[in-house]
Amino acid sequence: MDPRIKAIEQQQLKADRPIFRAGDTVRVFIRIQEDEKTRIQPFEGVVISRKGGSLRESFAVRRISYGEGVERTFMIHSPFIEKIMVVKRGDVRRAKLYYLREKIGKGARIDQRVDETTAAAPASVPTASAAQPTS
């Protein structure tokens, strides 16, 4: 690739994007222009695919809206995406989850992945013996 194009692309990459993969439930906040007003609209669903790389990387999100499946493809480094939040981590074995298009109801659920950081460090709960009265 031409070094000049690569330099321009490096300037446009967003550093604040979280790490997520197929199977994760994400909430994408999109900036929408209506007439002269701009508003932020969230789109929450399951990531069914990621493809591309660098500035051209995109991902597809699927959700069920009023009984109909709705899919939307986003460019990760798009200026119209305000932020991306990972709501849940999914435990899947595939990179493309196109089979979810055929599933409905409970069959379309994805198991939740337990992260190593949350499983290794249990929350510290103060006990009665730990609380020492001061005199």
**Name of the CATH first level:** Mainly Beta
User: What fraction of residues sit in β-strands?
Assistant: 35-45%
Q: Can you tell me the residue ranges where pLDDT is under 50 for at least 5 consecutive residues?
A: none
Could you spell the SSE succession in H and E letters?
HEEEEEH
Q: What is the count of distinct domains?
A: 1
Which structural category fits the helices and strands? Answer: mainly beta
* Quaternary organisation of the protein chains: single chain
* Overall pLDDT score: 88
Span between N and C termini? 72 Å
List the helices and strands and how they pair.
Layout: H1 3-12, E1 25-34, E2 37-51, E3 58-65, E4 68-75, E5 81-88, H2 116-120
Antiparallel strand pairs: 1-2, 1-5, 2-3, 3-4
